[in-house]
Design a protein that fits this description.
- With 149 residues, the chain is α+β, with helices and mostly antiparallel strands.
- The protein has one domain: CBS-domain (Roll).
- Strands 1-2-3 form a three-stranded mixed sheet. It has a two-stranded antiparallel ribbon with strand order 4-5.
- α5 packs across α6.
- The two termini are 37 Å apart.
Length: 149
Amino acid sequence: MKRIDEIVAGRPVFTVRKEESVQEAAGLMSQHKIGAMSVMDGNRLVGIFSERDVINRVVARRLDPAKTTVGTVMTVNIVVARPEDTLSSCLKKMKLANCRHLPVVDGEVLIGMVSLRDLLQVDIGEKEDRLEVLQNYMFHLPPGDAHKS
């Protein structure tokens, strides 16, 4: 089973400063086709800003996205993944926290973001690989074995 650091390796890390406006953050999320960004205060991870935050904490409250800062509407009680975490352990964390994104941190350093979609795609890929091995094992007769039946 893959570790999370293998899944996020080589991917860009998109962040937003807590002082930036919701409108700026939403524009970046749209541009990069992502559903959440890590919120930074300098080099320190202080929250996560997601599509849910936009809907529940900005649109539903009729706040002006251009005047509302990310820091005032971000999720602050975040759950994080560590590089050594497995796909399975991250899925459990997401289920318990009812979230769809996990920032990946190594000590105090943000190294990536993993989404539920990312994890499910890896999980499906691993299962397809195992299924192929099993099908090859079950339905492939080595040369010479066909005459023994």
